[in-house]
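Invent a record, attention on tokens:
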Amino acid sequence: MHANTISDQNVIDTDGEFQPTPPWNPILGNLAVMAQLQKKWPSDSREAESFALLSTEAPGCEAGFYVDVWPFSIPMLVVTSPALAVQACQTYDLPKPDVLQPFINPMAGGSDNLFVSNGAHWKQARELFNHGFSMAAAMSHMTYILEEAQVFVQMLKDHARKGDTFSLDALTCRYVMDIIGNVAL
């Protein structure tokens, strides 16, 4: 599905089908609605929170939607449902956009990683990790996973007790990367 025309509230794909998009302006794209949503979040929050909120507030955008934030980025398909994620990553093997790299690369140790690679390179990298993603392998690491979960929960409780503002995104990403790194390797 490749978007070629953006109209009010919809993207028309190459098959002539309308795809959901948040309220759109021919000059501002989706920037105006994104700016309104940004006001609902703490000033130091990331744009990912706006995309998550947008998926619940814009009609028809619950599973995913196109968003146009030009000139800051290329138009993107934001996927917010597991079923659509499976289609994008497995059924059709859609390429991951370059705009993911500044976010993913620092956590993944550089630009040559499984999370941003595509096509044959991704398949080769994924095969290295297949054994780690099996249910038997995951179950054999359950003790470690539960220990890490207890540490994660304690960190959340500590932040709640202090009443401070912290990056749940960064904390969760580190937790998930620790689990994946241990289980998949």
User: Anything to note?
Assistant: Residues 104 and 110 are 8 Å apart (CA to CA). The longest strand covers residues 3-7. Residues 1-94 form one domain. The chain has eight helices and five strands.
